[in-house]
Amino acid sequence: MINVYLDDFRPCPKGFVLAKTAEECKLLLEHEDVDILSLDFDLGWGQPTGLAVVQYIVDCGRYPRSCYFHTSSPAGRMQMIHLLTQHAPIHINIHHGPMPG
């Protein structure tokens, strides 16, 4: 089981695997069991956002045990949280902000 930190800019916290793009994050979710997933929304100009990762999670059912949102985009955070809370199983922990720290 791994922890995944999706971000194209911020440094990766200790104990996490860094995914710099939505595609890297989706590959990790596809091939690994993910305990904690921390999502950024904006991943570079013209690149898929964290919302694409959440859509992938919903579509394939590969949910992490816990999900945090460290994005600085309030609108992006709300879109990701809304989509995830609409579809996630009840036992998935969805935190409405970043990891405590």
Tell me what the structure shows:
This is Cyclic-phosphate processing Receiver domain-containing protein. It holds the Pfam family cREC_REC. InterPro entries: cREC_REC (IPR046909). Residues 2-85 form the Cyclic-phosphate processing Receiver domain. The protein has helices at 22-31, 50-60, 74-87, and strands at residues 2-6, 17-19, 34-39, 66-69, 93-94. The chain is an alpha/beta fold. The chain has one domain (2-94): Rossmann fold. Strands 2-1-3-4-5 form a 5-stranded parallel sheet. Strand 3, helix 2 and strand 4 (66-69) form a beta-alpha-beta unit. Helix 1 (22-31) runs parallel beside helix 2.
How do the helices and strands follow one another from N- to C-terminus?
A: EEHEHEHE
Oligomer description: single chain
Largest sheet entry:
5 strands, parallel
Which structural class fits the helix and strand makeup? alpha/beta
Strand content range: 15-25%
CATH level 1 class label: Alpha Beta
How many DSSP helices? 3
Give the CATH architecture.
Answer: 3-Layer(aba) Sandwich
Question: What is the 3D shape?
Answer: globular
Strand order of the largest sheet: 2-1-3-4-5
Q: What is the CA-atom radius of gyration, in angstroms?
A: 12 Å
- The low-pLDDT segments are none
User: And the CATH topology?
Assistant: Rossmann fold
Number of domains: 1
What is the helix fraction of residues, given as a range?
25-40%
Terminal Cα span = 21 Å
- Number of beta-strand segments: 5
Averaged pLDDT: 97
